[in-house]
C-alpha cells in the first residue's frame, strides 16, 4: 500500500496485475449484458425479441449521456485517496447488487416484466456500471504517465477481460444448469459473480495508489467546466476516429458472441456448441495479448497492427464462409479472433494517446470525459447491435419459446454471424487510413513537456 513511484516511471508488476484483476470485477457484468441477457429475456422470460431490442437501444442512448456525466464526475473528484480510486470503494455494494437485479424479473405479466427490464437494465448499465467503468477505464492515467506502461496495463486488463469473457461464454450456461437452471439458476450465478466483483474492488482500493508528478497545470484541471471539457473533446480528431472504430468493434462482438448463442442453437442445432464457438474465437485473443506488450516496447506501430488485424478478420471470415463446418471453420474463426484481438487491444491503448493530442490541441487534460465518451461508443454499439439483432429476428418470425424457427430467421442468424463482421473490418481499414497520431505522438509529448516546464517555472516565480 505504501508503494511509491515516479509519475513518468514504469508501473510495477504488482500494480499492473491488480489493474488487470479489475477486469474480473466488471467484464462478467458486461458479458452477461452483451452475451446472455438478450437470450435470457427471449428464451427464459419469454419477451418478444423486437421489444428487447428496443429497450436495449433506448437504454444505450441514455447510457451514452451518462458516460459523459460519469467521466466529468471522476475528473472533478478530489479526495485524499485520489480521483478514480475512491470510486472502487463507493461502488462496491452497488456493483454486487447490479449483477443480481438484472435477472430477478418478477412474474407479473408481460407489461410488468417489460417495465422491470427497462428500469433494472438502466439502473445497472446507465448508472452503476457506467460509473465504475469511468473510474476503472481512466485509472492508468492516474497511475503513471509512461506511454508503454499505460499500453501494457490496458493489454493486461484486456487479457483478463478476454479470459473472463471466454470462460463465461463457454461455461456460463453450464454453470446456470448446475445451479438448478431456469431463472433461479441465472440469479444464483449472477450472485456469485457479484460477490467476486466486490472482493476485487476492495483489493483495488487497498493495494493501489494514485501518483502525481507535482505538475501545477495538472492540479488546476479540477477547474475545467463540463461544457469546456466536452468542447475540447470535440476538437480531438483522432479521438473521433477511435470512437468510430470502437463502435464497429462492439458490433462485431455482438455479431460473434450475442448472435453466437443463437447460431449454435439454430444453425449448428446444438446449444452446447456455443462453448466451442467462444473457444475458437476468444482463445486466439489471449495468445495475441501475450505478445503485444513486447511489440509495444519495441515501438511497433499500433495503427499498423490494427490494419493487419482487420485484414486477418476478413481472411478468417472468408475461410469460415468457404468452410461452414469442420477444421476449416475452426481455423477461420480462430484467424478472426486474432484479427479482432489485435484491434481491441491496440485501440484501447490508443485512447490514452488521444488524450495527449487533446491536451496539446486545446490546453485541457480531461481523461475522465475522454475515456467515458469512448465507452459511450462501445455501449451505443452494443445497444444498436442488440437492437438490430432483435429487430432482424422479429422481422423474420423468430419466437424464442418455439422449438423450431422459420428458415428465414435461421438464415438471418447466419448472415449476422458470418457476413456483418467482414463488412465492419473493411470500415476499420478505411478509418485507420486517416489515423496519423502514431507518427506524430513524440512531437506532441515534447511540446507538452516544454509547455508544462514554462508554466511550472512561471508559477514558482
Distance between the termini: 35 Å
Which strand-content bin applies to the residues? under 5%
CATH level 1 name: Mainly Alpha
Structural class: mainly alpha
The gyration radius over C-alpha positions equals 22 Å
- What does the average pLDDT come to? 86
**Which bin fits the share of residues in helices?**
over 70%
- CATH homologous superfamily annotation: MFS general substrate transporter like domains
Count of DSSP helices? 18
Task: List the helices and strands in order.
Answer: HHHHHHHHHHHHHHHHHH
- The general outline is globular
How many discrete domains? 1
List keywords for this structure.
single chain, mainly alpha, Growth Hormone, Chain: A, 18 helices
Describe the structure.
The protein has 461 residues and is mainly alpha-helical. The protein has one domain (19-209, 218-460): Up-down Bundle (Growth Hormone, Chain: A), CATH 1.20.1250.20. 80% of the residues lie in helices and 0% in strands. It has helices at 13-21, 23-44, 49-75, 86-90, 92-101, 109-143, 147-178, 182-207, 216-219, 226-233, 237-267, 273-297, 302-322, 326-362, 367-395, 407-418, 420-433, 437-460. It contains 18 helices and no strands.
Sum this structure up briefly.
With 461 residues, the chain is mainly alpha-helical. It has helices spanning 13-21, 23-44, 49-75, 86-90, 92-101, 109-143, 147-178, 182-207, 216-219, 226-233, 237-267, 273-297, 302-322, 326-362, 367-395, 407-418, 420-433, 437-460.
